[in-house]
């Protein structure tokens, strides 16, 4: 499987998502190697600017208190459990498609994170985690001496 | 678990849409109790204002519009999922009481209660002693 070195894509900002998607489609077409595993749940989108990275994930129907977000160094870990409806004894399922069970996903970012300032929101079933860079790794402007 | 199971599926819409957004098939659980059918659908990114539930004859259609997410002043550098609308239809048997359908949305999950019509609820028949 081709795995892009993700963080190079930053230079091709506008085309990156399209290209990645195309590549995923290709992988899917040609082999099963592109198949996602449960370790790849939840699917994430990653946004970046000068100071932060923002990770969003679709996690419908979770209890926000039970989503476990932790940061160590440059790695973000999302963990949690999707729970079944409590169905009484006599009731029965006609159809069950929604995922159940534990998940844990680690995402490595290209810079060290400031764990103190990480913010997370959970709205409408979408988790948004804002991850600021540590000060030391922020880009510095360099003056040219004439 | 294959990719098909954990990633959301794109819809092949029977009727094309005017808005140029992708539509997805929400995953649903359906369970039955004595008095009602319950339908639970995953629709991340959708709130109560953006959901339509329609019952025409015996076709139940659920429809949710999710706003495209965009983080201010940032660029998308890596993408595994796309945001779009949700649509799915079900054919109901006519034992559902269409007027009493209740719908709630919480944390991106639509929950529908479809009460069974009075006439089909099981009734216990008392046998009188002769």
A few lines on this structure:
Chain A has one helix and eight strands; from the N terminus they run H-E-E-E-E-E-E-E-E. Chain A has about 150 residues and is mainly β. Chain A folds into two domains: about 1-35, no CATH class; about 40-135, Immunoglobulin-like (Sandwich), CATH 2.60.40.790.
What features would you describe in this structure?
Chain A is mainly β and 146 residues long. Chain A has a four-stranded antiparallel beta sheet, with no helix packed on it. In chain A, a hairpin with a 2-residue loop joins β7 and β8. The longest helix of chain A has 15 residues. The radius of gyration of chain A is 19 Å and the shape is extended. The mean pLDDT of chain A is 80. Chain B has a single domain, classed as Immunoglobulin-like (Sandwich), CATH 2.60.40. Chain B has one helix and ten strands, in the order αββββββββββ. In chain B, a hairpin with a 3-residue loop joins β3 and β4. Chain B starts with a helix and ends in a 15-residue tail after the last strand. β1 of chain A pairs antiparallel with β7 of chain B.
What key phrases describe this protein's structure?
heterodimer; A: 146 residues; mainly beta; Immunoglobulin-like; 2 domains; four-stranded antiparallel sheet; three-stranded antiparallel sheet; 34% strand; B: 130 residues; five-stranded mixed sheet; 1 helix; 10 strands; elongated
């Amino acid at each position: 499987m081709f795995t892009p070195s993700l963080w190079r894509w930053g230079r091709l900002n506008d085309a990156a998502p399209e290209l990645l998607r195309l590549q995923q489609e290709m992988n899917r077409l040609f082999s099963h190697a592109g198949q996602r595993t449960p370790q790849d749940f939840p699917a994430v989108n990653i946004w970046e600017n000068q100071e932060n990275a923002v990770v969003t994930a679709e996690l419908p129907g979770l209890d926000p208190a039970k989503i476990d977000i932790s940061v160590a160094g440059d790695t973000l870990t999302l963990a949690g459990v999707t729970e079944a409806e409590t169905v009484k004894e006599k009731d029965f399922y006609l159809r069950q498609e929604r995922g159940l069970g534990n998940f844990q996903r680690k995402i490595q970012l290209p810079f060290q994170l400031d764990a103190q300032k990480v913010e997370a929101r959970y709205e409408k079933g979408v988790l948004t985690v804002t991850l600021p860079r540590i000060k030391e790794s922020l880009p510095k402007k360099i003056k040219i001496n004439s | 678990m294959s990719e098909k199971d954990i990633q959301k599926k794109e819809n092949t819409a029977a009727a094309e849409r005017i808005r140029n957004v992708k539509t997805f098939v929400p995953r649903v659980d359906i369970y039955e109790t004595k008095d009602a059918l319950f339908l639970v659908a995953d629709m991340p990114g959708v709130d109560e204002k953006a959901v339509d539930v329609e019952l025409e004859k015996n076709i139940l259609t659920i429809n949710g519009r999710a706003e495209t997410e965009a983080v201010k002043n940032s660029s998308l550098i890596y993408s595994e999922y796309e945001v779009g609308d949700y649509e799915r239809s079900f054919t109901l048997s006519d034992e559902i009481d269409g007027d009493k359908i209740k719908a709630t949305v919480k944390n991106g999950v639509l929950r529908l209660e479809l009460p069974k019509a009075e006439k089909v609820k099981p009734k216990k028949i008392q046998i009188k002693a002769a």
